[in-house]
Write a structure and sequence with these properties.
With 263 residues, this protein is an all-alpha fold. 66% of the residues lie in helices and 0% in strands. The chain is built from 13 helices and no strands. The mean pLDDT is 96.
């Protein structure tokens, strides 16, 4: 039965989904920009409820962008992707190269003892939330331990850029809206263990269905396709914008894989 299931997955066509057209690339590269600018404007005018909502959306769309970057699926050259991750390391705080190392290890060791990224998925929801502030620290420590020399240089450069950025924002520029942004991103980083990991992996284990998914156009649209997660694990090279199409193809071969839903 397992052999038959694997053969049915092999029948899924996916390589035609890899290519992005020029408009697709522009859209992917600028996806989070309106939310970022909106959050800054709202914060500058003291509208912090609106600013927080926009910051949440910026963080969500930024996660989609850097997640595609981890897999070099943005439709831009590899070297440009490295710099893209560098820019978002400052905008979102932390080192995106460190997160990339752990995320690719997550794909190789999904839900086993070597999977640092998925630690929170094995916890109750409330522990995953409390674990949040420790999560980025563990990711960076593990990346520095296992990363190659070039990767470690990127990580250290991005962390240094973060220190300079924070020093400028709080010690030199004295712009309240930028200070707000840094604090909001720090909070976002503390919530990734829950929103980016626990939601898509809780109740999953090695040897079974490794991740959750969504169905329905409205849910996919609201979450920017980020919760088609079992599809992503099966075919990680497919860009996020193509995952709804991939999900339809997988459903024709293995409808049982959509049993675990995010919501």
């Amino acid at each position: 039965m397992q052999d038959d299931s694997r053969e049915r997955l092999k029948a899924v066509q996916w390589k035609d989904l890899l290519q992005l057209g020029p408009r697709d690339v522009v859209h992917e590269m600028t996806l989070s920009l309106p939310w970022l600018l909106a959050s800054w404007v709202a914060a500058a005018y003291g509208q912090y409820v609106v600013a927080l909502a926009c910051s949440f959306m910026f963080f969500l769309t930024g996660l989609r962008q850097v997640h595609n970057a981890y897999h070099y699926a943005l439709g831009i050259p590899r070297r440009s992707t490295e710099w893209f991750m560098g820019v978002f390391s400052v905008l979102m705080l932390g080192s995106m190269h460190a997160v990339q190392i752990n995320h690719l290890r997550h794909h190789r060791h999904c839900m086993d003892d070597e999977d640092v990224e998925a630690m929170s998925a094995r916890m109750p929801w409330w522990k995953a939330l409390l674990f949040g502030p420790l999560f980025p620290l563990l990711l960076h420590r593990k990346a520095l331990q296992v990363g190659r020399p070039r990767q470690r240089r990127w990580i250290l450069a991005e962390l240094a850029a973060n220190l300079v950025w924070i020093g400028l924002v709080f010690g030199v520029l004295d712009w309240t809206w930028l200070q707000y942004h840094v604090v909001a991103m720090a909070i976002g980083q503390c919530l990734t263990a829950f929103f980016a990991v626990w939601l898509v992996h809780h109740g999953c284990e090695p040897g079974g269905v490794l991740a959750r998914t969504v169905r329905g156009r409205a849910k996919a649209w609201l979450t920017y396709n980020m919760f088609f997660h079992i599809e992503h694990h099966l075919f990680p090279a497919v860009p996020t914008r193509r995952l709804p199409v991939l999900a339809e193809r997988i459903d024709r071969q293995r409808p049982d894989l959509a049993a675990k839903r995010v919501f």
